[in-house]
Amino acid sequence: MSYIVFALKWRPKTFDEVVGQEHITTTLKNSILRNRLAHAYLFAGPRGVGKTSTARIFAKSLNCKKGITVEPCGACVSCIEITQARNFDVIEIDGASNRGIDEIRTLRENVKFAPVGGRFKVYIIDEVHMLTTEAFNALLKTLEEPPEFVKFIFATTSAHKIPATILSRCQRFDFKRIPLLKIIEQLNKIIAQENINIDKDVVFSIAKASDGSLRDAEVLLDQLISFSKDKVSISDVIAVLGIVQQEQLFNLTDRIIHKDSKAALGILNDIIDAGKDIGLFLNNLIEHFRNLMICKITKGDFSLIDLPQDICERIYQQAQEFSLEEILSFFNILLNTQEMAKRFDSLRIPLEIGIIRLAHHKIKTGISEVPQSKDNKDTAIENPAVDNIKKEEVDCHKTEQGANLSLDDIKIQWKNIVDKLSKIKISVATYLNEGEPIKLQVNNLTVSFPKNYSLHKEALERKENKSIVEKAASELLKTHIRFTFILSKDEVNKDRSEAPPIMKAILDTFNARTIKE
C-alpha cells in the first residue's frame, strides 16, 4: 500500500475528532438531533482548520446507512465513499476552477435529480468566493428554494468577497485558528501513534510555524521526518523551516535588559547568516514584547498567551525586568522600525538601528529637573511608585495658567515635551528634538530648524504628526498651543560628541563618523 501523508491519514472522520472547533461541531450535532437542518451552510475561516473535513462529516451524518446521526458509522458504503471523495450523492466542486456561469448552469440542471443511494444530495463548493458575479447570480434562485433532498455547503477563506445576497441565504459558521496548545496536543497524539523519535522543542516549533493551521502542522511534521535520519531535532527544524527559535528571542531581550547593543547585534547577525526571514523575526520580536506586556498587566495569568506553561513562566520572569512604560515605548521603537524599513531595500539596517534604540532606551520623567521652591513644595513626589500622569501634573504646575505662559516657560519644558512625545511616537520626538522654540505669539509657538534639516520640518508639518505634537504640548503646558515650523539660515553639522545617546551608540557600534554634506 502506498504511503498516506499525515494530513490525509489523520483527517478527522467524526465531529468529535475535529480539533479546536467545538462551537461549530456542537451546533451542527444539535441541529441534526433536533431535525433543524438548513438548506445552505457557509463555512468560513483560515486554511487548514477543518472546513472541508467538517463538511464531509456532516454529509456522512446525513447519508449514513444507520440513519441520520451525529455519529456516522464510517464503515458503510456511503461513509467510506464520502471519506474517499467518490460518492455520487456528495459532489465536491472546486470554486477556483469551476467558477463560471456555465458550470453553475450545469449544477442547476443536475440539482433537480434525486440522490442515487443516499437520503440527501450534498454539494460542497470549496473556495466559493472565487465564483464570478454571473455565477453567483445564477445560483441565487436554486440556493433560496432547492429541492428538499439537496443541501449546499460552501467553504471559503475570504467570506468578505461573497455577495450579501448569497450570505443572507446561508447559515454561517466561522472557523477559528486552532490554538497552539491544541495543535501541540494533536501532534503529540500523532507522534505517539506513529512511534516517531522527536525532540519536545520540535513539536512547539512546528506548531508555532503553522500559524493556527493543523493541516500545515501535519505537513511540516511529515516533511521533517523525511528530512531527518533517526531523530527529529531542533537543528532539523531550523534547517528545513528557517524559523527563529524562541530561545533567540529570550537571548536578545536579555541583551536589551543589560544594555549590551553589541551582543544584541551579534544575535541579529547570526539570524541573518543562518538565512532566516528577518521580517518574520521582527514580527516575532513584536509578539514577544506583546507577551511581556500581557504578563506585566495580568501578573502571572497566562490565559491570554498561547504558549506552553514553561515558556510563559520564562516570559513572566523576563517581564519583571521592565516597567510597563518601557515595554510600551519599545513597541513604538519596533513599529517605527517597520515604518523605516519601507524606505530601504533591506530590512537589516532598520533592524540594527531599532535594536540599538531598544538597548539604549530609557524612560525619563523629567522630575529631577523641576526646581523645588516654596511655591511647589507641596507638589513634590515622595512616593517612587507614583504614575507618570501625576509626574506630568507636577512638571506642569508652574504653567497651569495658560494666559501667563511665556517662551521661557516653554523652553524649560521643552525636554519634557520631547520625552512625552517619545512615548507616543519616537520618530516625531526625534524630529522635534532638533528644533528650537524661538517665538511665542498668542499661543502660537514658532520652532526653528537648521536649513539642512528640511526633512524634519516637512515630517512634522504632516497633519497627523503636527496633531500629535500640539496635543502632547497642550496637555503638558495646560493650555492649547499651536506650532509653526520654519527653517533658519544656518546649517548644523553635529560631531559624535554632540550627538544624542542613541546616535552615539550607533556611531560607536559601527565605528562610524558624521560627514558634512
Describe this entry's structure for a reader.
The protein is of the alpha/beta class. It has four domains: 6-174, Rossmann fold, CATH 3.40.50.300; 180-241, Helicase, Ruva Protein, domain 3 (Orthogonal Bundle), CATH 1.10.8; 246-360, Zinc Finger, Delta Prime, domain 3 (Up-down Bundle); 388-508, 2-Layer Sandwich (GMP Synthetase, Chain A, domain 3), CATH 3.30.300.180. 50% of the residues lie in helices and 9% in strands. The protein contains 23 helices and eight strands. The chain has helices spanning 6-9, 22-33, 51-63, 77-83, 101-110, 133-144, 164-167, 180-194, 200-209, 214-227, 234-241, 246-257, 261-273, 278-298, 309-319, 324-341, 348-360, 388-395, 407-422, 426-433, 454-461, 463-477, 501-509; strands at 40-44, 90-94, 121-126, 150-156, 171-174, 436-441, 444-449, 482-487. It has a five-stranded parallel sheet with strand order 2-3-4-1-5, covered by helices on one side. A three-stranded mixed sheet has the order 6-7-8, with helices on one face. Helix 14 (278-298) runs antiparallel to helix 16 (324-341) and helix 17 (348-360) packs across helix 23. 32% of the residues are buried.
